[in-house]
């Protein structure tokens, strides 16, 4: 008899070579987070995808079928947190584990991990832990935002680069976050700037019908509207949080858009992520940490400083607004109310069902005023410059596997792989001090040899 445990996660003190019965692999150097300031994760969607490709290929490998596969990290605390996030997310996505089940194993034996932080320069004001990220992955799978069979990793890595547009989908087909366009395409302080026209082909191809600008007016909105796009200005100061009027207006625009919405501020990170996060909480009932985590996985650096606490503070009220919104929509669909399309100029329905009065011209002028941002370098300028500089140092992204591999062929949803979670145990070899987390696979049709594996448990402790 042989035991059924094939997949393990380990935190070691140094690199270790594979043996006759154990295959060790590590991604500490292959997949590295590109930080702005003190932020260090979570690793972005492309890196998670490449990790899944690599691990799934190993699980499918005939030559590794009889070996223990040990994914390990021997990096610092930041590397450990990202490695735990990767293997935990893999378990949620491919091994049908709940976020809580995956996280409970990762923190067994009193293991602790650093919390992720925002991309600001100052003191961390808000911690995002691994469980938040696992829950975000779980929700993204539920809502169809995360589907690696439809994911084009090369396209993701191409367009997230500053010179290629600097944009990412947050909710595919609904929200695209991007860096603010400029009057004309040029290089300024080493950062590539793009005119509105540079985005037209991609926007048309992907049914983006509306643009929301949150920063000062760097370009004439007519360049979008003359080409058939809707354009909306909802200015608030870089690094700050929006007032209630801006949040209501943004939600109203998004709820009535015919197609997808492209949202930008200066860098397309802080203000952009804050408002998209509000929509996600209202219409998908994500928690604030889940919304922030998902946005950072899609677009690292999203939601910064006090914006994190703002999103947290808005969660309960937006959940309530969303419940009322869905109830009214259901009534309309059931014929209890006349079905009418709310035009973008009509005010939102509040929780108590009354309509807000229209804003006065003075209030609208204040809402769209960008006087405070017309002069000086802001947070968005600094973040864009940092992103451009770091990408210039790395002309190609981190890739796992050979260039002729088709990533989509390597990703198999392991529908029949049922993991059993057990306690950790110490590795026996002196050079591998740390702990391992075994993942049991039984009854699998993915790997034929696993059909004949039988569990062996000694006193409740798993063995190699």
UniProtKB/TrEMBL annotation:
<protein>
    <submittedName>
        <fullName>Dual specificity protein phosphatase CDC14A</fullName>
    </submittedName>
</protein>
<dbReference type="Pfam" id="PF14671">
    <property type="entry name" value="DSPn"/>
</dbReference>
<dbReference type="GO" id="GO:0007605">
    <property type="term" value="P:sensory perception of sound"/>
</dbReference>
<dbReference type="InterPro" id="IPR029260">
    <property type="entry name" value="DSPn"/>
</dbReference>
<dbReference type="InterPro" id="IPR000340">
    <property type="entry name" value="Dual-sp_phosphatase_cat-dom"/>
</dbReference>
<feature type="domain" description="Tyrosine-protein phosphatase">
    <location>
        <begin position="166"/>
        <end position="323"/>
    </location>
</feature>
<keyword id="KW-0206">Cytoskeleton</keyword>
<keyword id="KW-0539">Nucleus</keyword>
<dbReference type="InterPro" id="IPR029021">
    <property type="entry name" value="Prot-tyrosine_phosphatase-like"/>
</dbReference>
<dbReference type="Pfam" id="PF00782">
    <property type="entry name" value="DSPc"/>
</dbReference>
<keyword id="KW-0131">Cell cycle</keyword>
<keyword id="KW-0378">Hydrolase</keyword>
<dbReference type="InterPro" id="IPR003595">
    <property type="entry name" value="Tyr_Pase_cat"/>
</dbReference>
<comment type="similarity">
    <text>Belongs to the protein-tyrosine phosphatase family. Non-receptor class CDC14 subfamily.</text>
</comment>
<keyword id="KW-0966">Cell projection</keyword>
<dbReference type="GO" id="GO:0051301">
    <property type="term" value="P:cell division"/>
</dbReference>
<keyword id="KW-0132">Cell division</keyword>
<dbReference type="GO" id="GO:0005634">
    <property type="term" value="C:nucleus"/>
</dbReference>
<dbReference type="InterPro" id="IPR016130">
    <property type="entry name" value="Tyr_Pase_AS"/>
</dbReference>
<keyword id="KW-0904">Protein phosphatase</keyword>
<dbReference type="GO" id="GO:0000922">
    <property type="term" value="C:spindle pole"/>
</dbReference>
<keyword id="KW-0963">Cytoplasm</keyword>
<dbReference type="GO" id="GO:0005813">
    <property type="term" value="C:centrosome"/>
</dbReference>
<dbReference type="GO" id="GO:0004722">
    <property type="term" value="F:protein serine/threonine phosphatase activity"/>
</dbReference>
<feature type="compositionally biased region" description="Polar residues">
    <location>
        <begin position="393"/>
        <end position="403"/>
    </location>
</feature>
<dbReference type="GO" id="GO:0060091">
    <property type="term" value="C:kinocilium"/>
</dbReference>
<feature type="region of interest" description="Disordered">
    <location>
        <begin position="353"/>
        <end position="407"/>
    </location>
</feature>
<keyword id="KW-0597">Phosphoprotein</keyword>
<dbReference type="InterPro" id="IPR000387">
    <property type="entry name" value="Tyr_Pase_dom"/>
</dbReference>
<dbReference type="InterPro" id="IPR044506">
    <property type="entry name" value="CDC14_C"/>
</dbReference>
<dbReference type="InterPro" id="IPR020422">
    <property type="entry name" value="TYR_PHOSPHATASE_DUAL_dom"/>
</dbReference>
<feature type="domain" description="Tyrosine specific protein phosphatases">
    <location>
        <begin position="248"/>
        <end position="310"/>
    </location>
</feature>
<dbReference type="InterPro" id="IPR050561">
    <property type="entry name" value="PTP"/>
</dbReference>
